[in-house]
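Figure-free illustration: sequence to structure, shown twice.
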Amino acid sequence: MTGQTSGRYGVYYAPERGGDLDRFGAAWLGRDNESVPPAAPVPPDGLSPEALSPEAWRAATEPPRHYGFHGTLMPPFAPLPGVDEAGIVDRLETLAGSLAPFDLPSLSVRVIGSFLALVPADQVRLGEAAEACLRAMTPLRIPATPEENEARRTPGMTPAQSRLLDEWGYPYVLSEFRFHITLTGRVEDPDRRARLADILSGLAASVTGRPYPVRELCLFHQPDRSAPFRLTYRARLGNTKENS
């Protein structure tokens, strides 16, 4: 991992490889985090065509399939010139070594605006980890221009979110951080959204209502804006480089 890097990186929570939550996410999205999405993803077992057609499933899951099954801690960023992937990994390892492992509180399927997500019962430790990621990784990021920030500003944004956008390049950080694992793209029709929530609550019943270990900070990479994000590195929490 040397040389000039390109594209964008994000620091995310992703389930431990091969665990129940990881398998659920891969089945629901039709891809795992570490490979490129297939051209024709297959709906998960247990999802009947009568409940949701393959075409409707692909449309609903297309946006999160592009990003992978994850919860954002540090939003995607383009690294500064001269910052390569080895430098990003080095910073991530140092950060991970300073954080103690903890548990992700029990998850449930919820509606957030017009999309569906898995949301934990408590956000405190996740918020602390997200703030640590934001402060540690921001010095490696190309700052957003005022024009880019204006393009991201929306009419419904609160004054606090607008200030965070100007300072950090993203409005949903620090006091506005809300952890979630996205399951669908926008579903504007409320009846269809309610049906999807029922379907997902049933499919996710085996992975909701219980905690999960958070033992890693996961680095995801997107080579260019048209390419999907892939998980490229896992940094163990509490393990300094000297002890790893």
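We now fold a second protein in the same way, so the two outputs can be compared directly.
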Amino acid sequence: MTITKKVTFIAKKDGVKKMKELLTAMVKPSKAEDGCIFYDIFQCKDRPEKFFAVETWRDEAALDGHRNSEHYKVYKSSYEQYCEDKYSDELEVLG
């Protein structure tokens, strides 16, 4: 069963540029991971401090592999100083 998530990040006012760099750096290596079906980062045009990661993984094992990857560890150890708020939603694909 696939897992689809939307993770919302609200960057601190002085952290927008760095947050964008950290999140953008996640895209290419995440897409190359075994079990990644979809992975992209979005930034709101009218609220540049607001970012979304939308990701779909083949299964829980693939998502666990992502969470144990080197690029995820770099992001995880760095993002909090630039982020005001973060929350995620698990999504159900309809249709």
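Summary for the second example: The CA atoms of residues 5 and 35 lie 14 Å apart.
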